[in-house]
């Protein structure tokens, strides 16, 4: 744990030092849970967006994108349930005066029990070596079973309490589990209260309270209310999807873990409209398709896990989270939900407009069912960044800090480096810049010794460093150094474009 905390701190300071992420309004001492993306951060973020958009929109004939406004008619948030039910259960510790989310306190407690199980498994693994049967051990070991039973019991009781909105019961559960405030170490808790997460502001004249508008807490509603516009103008046939990337705002109370939980963040969402009754087939399809998307980035499978929801929203009939192993443990990265016809029906009801589809094959009108995939852009950023951050000890004992980013996502694809700042090498390097710049984000760097320049590029995850040396001036060849292996090839300048393009291709 301590090691991971240390790693997480390093990732945060690396992000700042190398222009990926800055605390927002830093010269005014910053704002909690709000961040700005710097010069390399914005490139990485844009590349993630493009990678998602390409796989969802460009590669699916039946999915189109939109970009809806952040402000929407306030009744939309009544229809969606956000005005009444988009709440977090909050609890304060009277001694430290710190505020927590009751569900997070309970989740953390469960994570500690999970840790205990993992430690038992690790211990046994060491003891039994090769012959260790993990599955058998988990099924039979007394201590593991005892902790698992506790986890199941807490999860079950908590979801029952939340479903019946029994906040007094939630407080009792926190007390019964002996959960203490991490700051004061005491169990002196207030009652649990519900707190709405939407930011609101006024539109037009400030005095009338009917003018309250919300900053959207999710991008999905912009898709639902445009369902017919897109279906009609795009002549879309069910099944079809609408995708959107955009900002969302939530007044998160437990704002911690860097860009994992922010008050202003971006989502990449896709709502897939299907025939009623076919939703579970499509749910499985999207679960599989999204899993493949994650794995195509080359991040190992064991960094991900699927977590099926026990507690479903009343309108949903299946939901799963794709969790990623962040430095602070497995946490939600993406949600895939089968939402039935809840959203469109509610908008029909509140707007008084029909949101139906005429299925010519069935010769029938119906409100389509929806399967959604919803992924946090910033969380994806944190996932790839934290997995990429590596400190390698080289043969000479020095440490190399390198971001082994999926190459397709790297902010800069190639750096062009004249070996020395004279003998026509800078001019030659500029010629190469001119060839590559229209195709890739490239960078020219002539300052400092070549080793130092390589390190700078390693630290921002640049896959290729192209060096212009004396031989280049004679035969138009350069060395091209690959980031992860540090292996160097000598190739002709005119081969560079193909070489880089081949190298940055994602996995199929
Ligand atoms: P959590 O349980 O972590 O609060 P959620 O279940 O409320 O997340 P959803 O409403 O399903 O999240 O939103 C879809 C995705 O948006 C999440 O999987 C996550 O990647 C991202 N997301 C949600 N809230 C935040 C936030 N405050 N900061 C950054 N990303 C977020």
Annotation keywords:
508 residues; alpha+beta; BirA Bifunctional Protein, domain 2; Herpes Virus-1; Rossmann fold; seven-stranded mixed sheet; five-stranded mixed sheet; 23 strands; globular; binds adenosine-5'-triphosphate
Low-pLDDT residue spans:
none
- DSSP summary: helix tally: 17
End-to-end separation in angstroms reads 35 Å
Residue-averaged pLDDT? 94
Small ligands present: adenosine-5'-triphosphate
Rg from Cα = 26 Å
The CATH topology of the largest domain is given as: BirA Bifunctional Protein, domain 2
What fraction of the residues are assigned to beta strands by DSSP?
A: 15-25%
Give the biggest beta sheet. Answer: 7 strands, mixed
CATH superfamily of the largest domain, please?
Answer: Bira Bifunctional Protein, Domain 2
The second-level CATH architecture of the largest domain is 2-Layer Sandwich
The percentage helix is 25-40%
Q: Number of domains in the coordinates? A: 3
What structural category arises from helix and sheet content? alpha+beta
Question: Could you give the count of β-strands?
Answer: 23
Tell me, briefly, the overall form: globular
CATH class of the largest domain: Alpha Beta
Q: What strand line-up does the widest sheet have?
A: 3-9-10-16-13-12-11
Oligomer: single chain
